[in-house]
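User: quick one, fold this
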Amino acid sequence: MEFNVLVRHYPGGQRDRGSHMKRTRAVELIEAMLHRLDGPQEWPLNLVRQVWLFGSFARGATEPHDVDVAVRCERDERMNQAVVQAIFSGGNPYAPLRRALAGSSRGLQFQFEDAAREQLEAEGTLMLPLWQRGDTLTEALGVLHAIDEDPEAGRAERHDMIDAFEGLDRHIPRPIRAELIEWQQQEALTISRITLSDAPDDTDLLATPDMRWAFRRWNDDSPLRRAALAGLALMKELAVDLDDVELAGQRLPTPRRLAGHRSEPRWWINWKWQGYQSIPYCVTRADGWLEVVQPTRARPLNALVIKPGPKAAAFGR
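Assistant:
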């Protein structure tokens, strides 16, 4: 059985978008990956079936930002278990596969979804087949070294972009970017960007047993728990009443709500674009939506703040 999952993992922190690496260094990284694929086929490397190159390196750039690699794999029971565990912990089930392919090196950015690769191809992105199961190391290296350098090859044009998405676009699927931009152009909402501050270790957000119980759905080291606490900390800074916040699909067990207070949500905190199609309908009738983009255990927590626009009242009429 084959599986597809969109994962572009950035080890050791997000790469500076203004930085480049020499092409010789990029070639070394790919050669090392091919040697790993040609070596002992232990899990999870034995799941890999095909590899493509795309992006500026595949077009011949002399100083690419990074090397974009698309990978198609099989899914075994061990990987199934990793996926299930990641759903609950918020982790990346394919981190072992990324490490197996790239080691500890930075500069290789992976995509593991056939549908996303096919969409890129439909948009005209060059997808260069580099290796598939059964190829020899010599054959794959031959493909790599046959790529001609092109000093004029720069970064490909990115579609459906606004300033708020800069540097985050790889974590916001293009169809979602397009809809968000359309809603903003209709002036139904506004989109800005913020880096969330972590809630302090002694935060009073978890002062009551009921709130601590509500957070038991995430492990202590889960990036989702970190994102949830940081989002609520921002709400407090904005003087938002936590009685009226919906966090990842659930209302908070605040003392007032436990005492019987009922109200419609005024703010929503979410991630992974769950329920994003309801954003304009929620926001234009309330105060805002906080979308944490790619929750992480240690790297900066980037978020989009989506608030009512000048024509919010007229939206949906």
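User: anything notable?
Assistant: Residues 23-38 form the longest helix (16 residues).
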